[in-house]
């Protein structure tokens, strides 16, 4: 007997990924509204030590990220009706951690030019991530591989259009 009736949509567990300034929060919130899902920002799962480190202009290393990624993945897995979380998920290995905690997760990657990303970061006033860390994030970024469950979306378009395109891709899966 199938776990879900044929006319019942499968739950969606979605990670809106990308470097800082790519619009993960804005697009993720819009996408959650379109799909009727709970949304949280992955930054909310960082321990204070990680936030302090980034606010001081020091990039996180993998040792800082592993426990944080497991917390994000665990929260996502606990949402039986589906949910969306914004999480940088910059490396393939980070996405593997998220998938190990919540199998079936899909990734929607917010992409954009360095100039656009930097402009957005400089315009933010209430975020702990300084704009000068953008280059370290771009250097760390490993785009989605062909065998990963995800798709990339250019965030040069208005957030509502980006979220609509994401919704169309997710619901067509």
From TrEMBL:
Catalytic function, reaction form: D-gluconate + ATP = 6-phospho-D-gluconate + ADP + H(+)
The signal peptide here is none
**Which pathway does it take part in?**
Carbohydrate acid metabolism
What keywords are annotated for this sequence in UniProt? ATP-binding, Kinase, Nucleotide-binding, Transferase
InterPro entries hit by this protein: P-loop_NTPase, Therm_gnt_kin
Supply the Pfam families for this chain.
AAA_33
Q: Might you give the EC number(s) for this enzyme?
A: 2.7.1.12
Any single GO molecular-function term of the entry would be: gluconokinase activity
Protein family membership = Belongs to the gluconokinase GntK/GntV family.
- The protein in question is named Gluconokinase
């Amino acid at each position: 007997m199938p776990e879900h009736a044929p006319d019942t949509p499968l739950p969606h567990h979605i990670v809106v990924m990308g470097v800082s300034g790519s619009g993960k929060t804005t697009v993720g919130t819009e996408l959650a509204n379109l799909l009727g899902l709970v949304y949280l920002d992955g930054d909310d799962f960082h321990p204070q030590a990680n936030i302090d480190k980034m606010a001081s202009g020091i990039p996180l290393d993998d040792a800082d990220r592993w426990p944080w990624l497991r917390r994000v993945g665990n929260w996502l897995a606990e949402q039986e009706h589906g949910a969306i979380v914004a999480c940088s998920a910059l490396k393939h290995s980070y996405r593997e951690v998220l998938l190990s905690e919540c199998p079936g997760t899909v990734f929607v990657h917010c992409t954009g030019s360095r100039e656009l990303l930097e402009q957005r970061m400089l315009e933010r006033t209430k975020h702990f991530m300084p704009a000068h860390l953008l280059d370290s994030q771009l250097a760390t970024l490993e785009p989605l591989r062909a065998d990963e469950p995800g798709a990339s979306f250019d965030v040069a378009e208005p957030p509502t259009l980006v979220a609509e395109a994401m919704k169309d891709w997710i619901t067509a899966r």
